[in-house]
Specification:
two-stranded antiparallel ribbon, 16 strands, about 550 residues, alpha+beta, 8-stranded mixed beta sheet
Length: about 550
């Protein structure tokens, strides 16, 4: 299906124009092209107003739907703002109107006000002609210094527009008048010119909700827009970075970062994080085993202290260098490389590569890889992602050792075994590990040449998908042949059989069986066990 083109041409300015914040309402008809389904839905809404004589009610579509429509993108997230009644009351009128028209009606879902979950005004949800709609009042908001969660009250359209994060998200589509309303006076211009700008002075906006700093980066990289200089200056102020660190939960930071990495410009996103001086905050490295005295203000969860483990800007610059090199490598190898993992694995692996080999102690007092702690605890992303990033870097380290030691120049059984064991461990991530090893080297040209030679050996030795092979002799068979039970000895024997198979890729099951018979049973190492207290015998009753 072809994407609809924007209703006006998008251009990028060489220099972002400075605007006077007059907040003059501008109304523009016929800028939004509705789909037939949207036209039907909006006719239901206006029909409801006429049928029940709700003459003073104005229904507006707010936020992202308007922005996406103006950019020629389809959007199915329709949020409706009402000027003089609650979402629930208007949704009830809509259902009555649909029922009179013989159309299917659906149950109205009400999300009650809940300040603890950032829901300060009641929201009504209902499906109309198969499309879920959200109804809420126009809002104004005020913030406490200690939290990014605002207090909400009923507001005007201007107040609702000014409370939003960026001018491109502050536009309304007036359903009654079929026009786009720009209460900031610059929202339409900023969409046309491709600018991320705040409706209010950015320092004020970021102090109220510092998460918006990261949202500015996300929208800029999602739409390939420029960021207003006022935002650039405010984001680098100490009080703003401190507010981001103290007022925003780690979960929210992780969500924003992941969406940045899934954007069209993940490298630029990370570069902006660095240029804003936010590396140490976004990728916070915790202090060994010392939780904060007070819980997180949003989530209530006890988190690690900030550590000063290492200057975030120092390793951040190295991380950006590696990300930049990796991006170039992926573009050059695009036609020949196999499918790479998701963007979050790719770019976190490169960005956090300087932290590989470093450890911290977790709250249980155990040492663990810093990479895992940052992804799991500081970004609150899934553990499987942390393991993938760690494995990619593990592979990168092995490949870099091979390159630097020139082992691939004189290939033999030892290198073959090393590569086979690595690929069996990190599985399909080995392709990314090899690219990352090149990106991390000082001499990229020489490293790229080595990469081609190593990759050629992997193909020559049939190791590309070695991890997907099933064992010729399973654990049960090994136990029967060697007359042992499961445990460490079984694991050692299984590894020895895999090593044999790496070196003998065409070996048959019978040959593997003969090799197994020649292997000695591994000795059981003496283990210190805690003395168990003798159990008291139960008295017979």
């Amino acid at each position: 299906m072809m994407k609809r083109r924007p209703s006006f041409q998008l251009v990028r300015p060489k220099k972002i124009p400075v605007v006077n914040r007059l907040y003059k309402t501008m109304s523009h008809p016929q800028l939004v092209r509705l789909t037939p389904k949207e036209e039907q839905i909006f006719e239901v809404l206006t029909g409801t107003i006429k049928r029940y004589q709700l003459g003073g009610t104005i229904v507006r579509v707010a936020g992202g739907w308007v922005r996406d429509k103006l950019l020629g993108r389809e959007s199915h997230d329709i949020d409706l703002a009402l000027n003089n009644c609650t979402g629930k009351n208007f949704a009830e009128y809509v259902n009555r109107y649909l029922q009179e028209m013989g159309e299917k009606t659906n149950k109205i879902g009400v999300i009650c006000a809940n300040p603890d979950q950032s829901k300060h005004l009641e929201t009504a949800k209902v499906k109309v002609l198969g499309q879920e709609l959200d109804f809420v009042n126009l809002r104004a908001e005020t913030y406490e210094d200690s939290s990014r969660i605002p207090e909400m009250r009923f507001g005007t359209a201007l107040e609702d527009a000014l409370r939003r994060d960026f001018t491109i998200n502050s536009l309304f589509y007036n359903v009654n008048e079929k026009t786009v309303e720009d209460f900031t006076g610059v929202g339409l211009q900023d969409i046309k010119l491709g600018i991320i700008r705040t409706p209010l002075p950015s320092c004020e906006t970021f102090k109220d909700d510092p998460l918006r700093i990261l949202r500015a980066i996300r929208f800029a990289t999602r739409f390939a827009f420029e960021i207003d200089e006022d935002i650039m200056h405010s984001a680098q102020k100490v009080e703003i970075s401190q507010a981001l660190s103290n007022k925003v939960s780690r979960e929210r930071i992780g969500v924003e970062l992941k969406e940045m990495l899934d954007s069209k410009q993940p490298l630029r996103a990370l570069q902006l994080v660095l240029s804003f001086g936010l590396v140490a905050i976004v990728f916070r490295i915790p202090l060994d085993a010392l939780p904060k005295v007070e819980p997180d203000p949003d989530s209530g969860a006890t988190t690690y202290q900030e550590s000063g483990f290492e200057d975030g800007e120092d390793w951040g610059h190295e991380g950006i260098r590696i990300v930049s090199n990796l991006t170039v490598q992926m573009e050059e190898e695009l036609s020949s490389m196999r499918c790479l993992p998701a963007n979050d694995v790719v770019y976190l692996s490169a960005m956090l590569q300087p932290l590989y080999g470093k450890t911290v102690r977790n709250l249980k007092g155990r040492k663990e890889a810093t990479i895992v702690t940052v992804i799991r605890d500081s970004l609150k992303l899934r553990m499987s992602l942390a393991n993938d990033v760690l494995n990619v870097n593990k592979g990168c380290h092995v490949f870099a050792e091979i390159m630097n030691g020139k082992e691939h120049k004189t290939p033999g059984p030892e290198l073959r075994l090393k590569l086979g064991k690595l690929i069996r461990e990190i599985k399909g991530l080995w392709s990314l590990s090899l690219l990352l090893a090149v990106a991390s080297q000082a001499d990229i040209i020489a490293a790229a040449k080595s990469m081609k030679e190593i990759e050629g050996l992997i193909h020559q030795w049939n190791l590309t998908k070695f991890y997907s092979l099933k064992p010729l002799i399973d654990g049960k068979g090994i136990m029967q042949i060697k007359s042992i039970k499961g445990g460490p000895r079984l694991g050692i024997l299984m590894e020895q059989l895999w090593d044999w198979r790496i070196l003998n890729p065409t070996g048959s099951k019978d040959e593997c069986l003969e090799y197994l018979k020649t292997l000695p049973i591994p000795p059981i190492e003496a283990q210190t066990t805690k003395s168990k207290k003798p159990q008291k015998k139960k008295k017979k009753q």
